[in-house]
Design goal:
Strand content: 15-25%
Helix content: 40-55%
Mean pLDDT: 92
Radius of gyration: 19 Å
Strand order of the largest sheet: 1-2-3-4-5-6-7-9
Number of helices: 12
Shape: globular
Oligomer: single chain
Order of helices and strands: EHEHEHEHHEHEHEHHHEHEH
Number of strands: 9
Length: 326
């Protein structure tokens, strides 16, 4: 059983045949229900120019969800520093923290949020990919502006997102809690966390190493149903393995008719083995083992399935079967 806090990551998948407005409606209902289920945090990811994922700014979704809920922590997981001026990030999340004291998180990441090069350049006003030094400066400046310029009172809780040892090393250097994207780069998790804990330098933000692991979790009453629900995201992942971010998010029925190459099947099988897919008993075992291996202080679940009802059912099953009440 899981005895550590557990949260949810919302990636706002746009269903095949649906409108982005429908996805926004679902995100509002999702926030209310996730709070009712007792999850600690709900974070929103930044994405751009994808037919499968809504281009909804995390700061806007955070503000909307905060107005609809009363206790759950909300924020970005993450907002991508290279796409934004540090002072703007500080002003936006500092304002949210002042409006909703003790409930706002500022998770900062590095990626472009898109596989489309023209979109990435448009987000950065024509600039190319950020360097390691530029990223470090952006994160440091955002934290400095929160304290020195915004100063509205309660501050958001900062986290650094990482999917590699380099990202974890920066979190250790700056003394920030790290949210590791095990759902994206599971092969990097253990080495990155070892480095983070060994090199961590205490700061005003965090006195000791603090680790959140994000894991893809699809839980259903049976193994077969969980596999069916995971099918649409498998199709999207197969496209990502080829460097394509233009794959729509299909229905489970459409996904069931999709043919995967041998290489894609092997890649997906390897990935699923490191996540948490299946019946409540299977998911409980997988999540418990992941916590044991990583020593995580928190878990965050991302559940990219087609229908809102199925997504919420997965979170409900996990909370009922896998989480020990404290």
């Amino acid at each position: 059983m899981i005895t550590i806090p557990i949260g949810a990551l919302e990636v706002a998948m746009v269903q095949s045949g649906a409108r982005a407005a429908d996805t926004l409606r679902d995100t509002a209902e999702f926030a209310r229900r996730i709070e009712d289920l007792g999850y600690l945090r709900l974070w929103y990811a930044e994405h751009h120019h994808s037919p499968a994922i809504g281009a909804f700014p995390p700061v806007v979704l955070t503000a909307h969800a905060a107005a609809l809920t009363s206790s759950i922590r909300l924020g970005s997981g993450g907002v991508l520093a290279p796409n934004h001026a540090p002072i703007m990030l500080a002003e936006q999340f500092g304002t949210l923290a002042a409006l909703h004291p003790g409930r706002i998180d500022l998770g900062i990441g590095r990626g472009p949020g898109t596989f489309d090069e023209p979109t990435a350049r448009a987000l950065r006003r024509g600039a190319g990919p950020t360097t390691d030094d530029e990223y470090r400066d952006d994160v440091s400046a955002t934290l400095r502006f929160l304290v020195d310029e915004v100063a509205l009172g309660p501050l958001p809780e900062p986290w650094l997102l990482a999917s590699s040892t380099a990202g974890a090393a920066l979190a250790a250097e700056l003394g920030l809690p790290v949210a590791f994207a095990h759902h994206i780069r599971p092969d990097n998790t253990l080495a990155a966390l070892d480095h983070y804990r060994a090199q961590f330098a205490p700061s005003r933000w965090c006195a000791h190493p603090r680790v959140l692991i994000c894991v893809e979790t699809v839980c259903a009453e049976t193994q077969q149903e969980a596999a069916r629900l995971a099918g649409p995201m498998d199709v999207v992942k197969a496209g990502l393995l080829k460097g394509r971010g233009d794959i729509p998010f299909p229905t489970p029925e459409e996904a069931a008719g999709h043919s995967f190459t041998g290489e894609e099947e092997r890649g997906l099988t390897s990935f699923r083995a490191q996540q948490a897919h299946g019946s409540p008993d299977t998911v409980t075992k997988q999540l418990t083992e992941l916590v044991g291996v990583t020593g995580a202080d928190e878990l965050m679940l991302v559940t990219p399935v087609y229908a809102l009802a199925d997504r919420l059912k997965s979170y409900e099953l996990v909370k009922r079967h896998a989480v020990q009440a404290v």
